[in-house]
Amino acid sequence: MSDKISRRNFLKVVAGSGVLGFGVMATGCKGKPSGGEGWVSGQYEGKGDFPVNLKGRVAISKLNPSIERDDEKCILCGQCVDACKNVMGVYGNFPLPLKQEVACVHCGQCVMQCPSGAITEKSHVQKVLDAIDDDTKHVVVQTAPATKVSLGEEFGMPQGTSIGKKMVGALKAAGFDSVFDTCFAADLTIMEEAAEFVHRLTEKKDEIPHLTSCCPGWVKYCEYFYPELMHNLSTCKSPQNMLGATIKSFYANKVGIDPANIVNVSIMPCTAKKFEIAREELQVDDQRDMDFVLTTRELAVLLKKKGINLNNVPDEEYDSVLGESTGAGRIFGATGGVTEAAVRTAYYFATGTNPPADLLSWTPVRGMKAVKEATASIPGVGSVNIAVCHGLENARKLLDGVKANGSKWQFIEFMACPGGCIGGGGQPKAMDAIGAKQKRIEAIYKEDVVSEKRCSHDNGEIQFVYKNFFGKPLSEKAEKYLHTTFVDRHSRLFD
Ligand code: SF4
Ligand code: SF4
Fold first, then answer.
1. Annotated catalytic sites, by residue?
2. Which ligand 1 atom minimizes the distance to the CA of 83?
3. Which domains does the chain have, with CATH numbers?
4. What are the pLDDT digits (tens) for 241-254?
5. CA atoms of 166 and 188, how far apart (whole Å)
6. What tens digit of pLDDT does each residue of 189-213 get?
7. How far apart are CA 201 and CA 392, in angstroms?
């Protein structure tokens, strides 16, 4: 043995020789090692079960609203570190010791990579079951596009099976009072965001490039690492929260229910949505937009607790008037989908006519390439250069380039998770993760092609809600309920 010994080798020797056991006895600790819970030797005191590749793990605050870890299950394999650092560009990108808070954008990619199931989402299942059982509450649920092509996997269906209407049937059987569609809200988001983008292009050029804001993991990343670009973020709330605010205002008024008695639940592919609903900014008239988020996996748990097998429930329709959606709203679940949907309606806003066929199947923004680039030619506006980026480490590289050299794009879509929402941290886990993402994406684009309406502005229920409540995109009322602000979080990590 050399004079110098690494900590890892020292611990191996200690564990292998039983010296630790002697040490514990000698200090009178009766088997409880010093160093506190989670200390290496406390977890691996047994001979022979020392990890071969001891790589550490990400820190998770007890206050994290999205994820938690069961220390007893952690094998210190370091796969969460790999995901957080190499895919999400978070770990390793802030100084230590930590300054004010444990850095996390709540994406849940560490959950997807953790081989022992030590990291999980913070469950809202029991809270939702309690709300359903509370007769004084009117419990409303909404379903995100990516969950409609993945929930079936939890019930043994092939990857990429579209089960939207079955999910509605299952949610009604589970006791939810109304079932609405986040795809409707995606259409609503596009109405606001396309109007905002055209306005920025023509009158507020200092807010170009326009950065999308529907991914809460990406938004928090921007707030941590690129606060100087926060004024470029679209002020649109995410579809989840747009629908939440619409339910507690327009819908509550329509059905005559006190919004204080409405419980808004969403079914999301995403763990960051649990963080998002807790944001201070996301409440109107003293009502939180949203109350609970169930990931796709949690919904499967809830349905199984209720004895509901998705394979055996009948198809049912979404409730009206917040249940209609177009193909544009459905493709939000895939990387590039928000861009494609926004361009369809921006074209309409600028020209008064629907976009040509090539913009209805805009392949340059589709697929799994890290950064996709495309140019849309919109009469009256000109050529619009666009980038689509997924995975936050990719975002870091792209934005460092923008900071150094300026932006060659007028519109940039960011999604935290690889593949977009279909690859979210709340989705079913698959041995063949890449294949599963591919099949979910194919299913989403198939739904778009067979949709009777492909553009958000053609959604009849969207037109109804504007006519009877919001007035028009970017109206005072729309700004109040559908738009938000952001928080500079840079100083929580950096001096
Ligand atoms: S949720 Fe995302 S940002 Fe947070 S620790 Fe896990 S991988 Fe890192
Ligand atoms: S991936 Fe899971 S098991 Fe591995 S170190 Fe991280 S928390 Fe522990």
1. 193, 196, 214, 234, 273, 276, 281, 421
2. 7
3. 7-121 (no CATH), 125-490 (3.40.50.1780)
4. 999 999 999 999 99
5. 24
6. 999 999 999 999 989 889 999 999 9
7. 26
